[in-house]
Amino acid sequence: MQTCVVIVLFALNAILAASGVVFAVLAALRPSALAGEGAEGVGVHFYARMYAAKAVPFGVLAAVVPFLATGAVPGVCLLCAAVSQAVDAAIGLGRRDMRQAGGSAVAAVVHAVVAALIW
């Protein structure tokens, strides 16, 4: 694959992963900003923080690992991030939230493609 395409994919991967981190932190701080009105209460804050506890490390890992290493281990890390994003997309579809579904689906595909490139 041409070097320029690989660089663009790595950069897009990092941007999407960083965006996921930003949204996770935003959700942890203000769940109603992403979940909509009526998304308040102890349980909502608890699950938003639980989501961020998963999304922030995966996002940082997915953003950084393609620039640091190649092979099976970083490839598996990116595949795990892709699966996590695919599940987020499915949850978005279930809620009929096309922004969540679309963004997560794009991130899942890009993470998977970059995983295949570095494997």
What's the short story on this structure?
The protein is 87% helix and 0% strand. The chain is mostly helical. α1 crosses α5, α3 packs antiparallel against α4 and α4 runs antiparallel to α5.
The helix content is over 70%
pLDDT average, as an integer?
A: 91
Distance between the termini: 14 Å
Rg, Cα atoms, Å: 15 Å
Question: Largest sheet, if any?
Answer: none
User: How would you sum up the global shape?
Assistant: elongated
How many distinct folded domains?
A: 1
Uncertain runs are none
Oligomeric assembly: single chain
Count the strands? 0
Structural class: mainly alpha
What share of the residues does DSSP label as strand, in percent?
A: under 5%
Number of helices: 5
Tell me the series of helices and strands, N- to C-terminal. HHHHH
What are the key terms here?
119 residues; mainly alpha; 5 helices; 0% strand; elongated
What does this structure look like?
- The chain has one domain.
- Helix content is 87%, strand content 0%.
- The chain contains five helices and no strands.
- Helix 1 (3-29) packs across helix 5 (98-118).
- It is elongated, with a radius of gyration of 15 Å.
